[in-house]
């Protein structure tokens, strides 16, 4: 891991490095966009035929009839799964579901002004597509993390796509009751979900991480189909003054093994600890080729001049995963996807079983949003209802605001209701006629 010092002769270089970290994320997508644009446009125009051609080329799908995974295949995968793995999947699902239930926003109404009811309704999206990677590492955990919040939100149609899905992924799908699952991956899978193909109906939103091609495709379709976020390579920052070197190094290696492009950073003012972490990461990654490459290319130890600077640098980087020493550190954390506190909270626990989602913002996006949650699968519809009294109180002021904006029709629509109604004739005695 490269050591960067923010003080002394290395200060200028450190600032360049940090500035580059803040700009990370976009350049790699630009390189693949031309190829991805061609794929997405082709699927949008060609539908099933184009999707199947790409699936044969990229996903190894030879038999078109195998595009859709059957309920029987998912059930067989579950039956073939060991009891220990079944129990682990159930436990993870319970934790994720429980957390999503707590996150679910509520419908409410209020009457702050007499006669005016305002509120919000929480309604689920109609259909979502869950992208589950299965390249270097099959990720049944991602199926749980994407499908369960959608279920908690009440989404009626949940579509899973995954190229060459692992048996554990199929087993997890069976456990969750997933009924629509396609053997598709890459940019063509994203295009199929966004635009439909004939066999596959379009969805309202696409969620889940993927490689550069998947992420670039999500960027291209985002104006036609909602997406969760543009997720890049995994990131980890550990900001610590007194942690154990072996624990810190173990977390750095764990996240670095996801991808040769993963970003692993240790920030501290403790030079002795920094040196020890460097030694431990080298030892622990020696037999882990992906982590070894990632740490060699992207691993950083940042020696800050003060604790305050270490904290500020952490927020500037806005990491996907962040580990800090103690609960009180949360007071200074402003930008992070998910925070892990203390030596007994290894980051991989969050990848599988803690409950909070592991689909998290990367590339500095943690400055503006958190991870995937049940909120990504609902929409908030606002409601307002006036009676005559409330309109009489607020209407004249609203009409004045409309006047100021030059929107005469707006003002007229309000004032038409503020006019006093014409006097009612009521029931009058008949004139003339004879007395009874």
Structural notes for this entry:
By secondary structure, the chain is an alpha/beta fold. The protein contains 16 helices and 14 strands. The protein folds into three domains: 2-25 and 232-355, Nitrogenase molybdenum iron protein domain (Rossmann fold, 3-Layer(aba) Sandwich), CATH 3.40.50; 28-106 and 125-229, Nitrogenase molybdenum iron protein domain (Rossmann fold), CATH 3.40.50.1980; 387-418, no CATH class. The chain has helices spanning 11-22, 27-46, 48-59, 71-79, 83-103, 140-153, 167-176, 186-195, 212-221, 245-256, 271-284, 289-298, 307-317, 347-352, 388-404, 408-418; strands at 2-5, 108-113, 116-124, 127-131, 157-161, 180-182, 205-207, 226-227, 235-239, 263-268, 300-303, 321-324, 338-341, 378-386. A six-stranded parallel beta sheet has the order 1-11-10-9-12-13, with helices on both faces. Helix 4 crosses helix 7. The N and C termini lie far apart (111 Å).
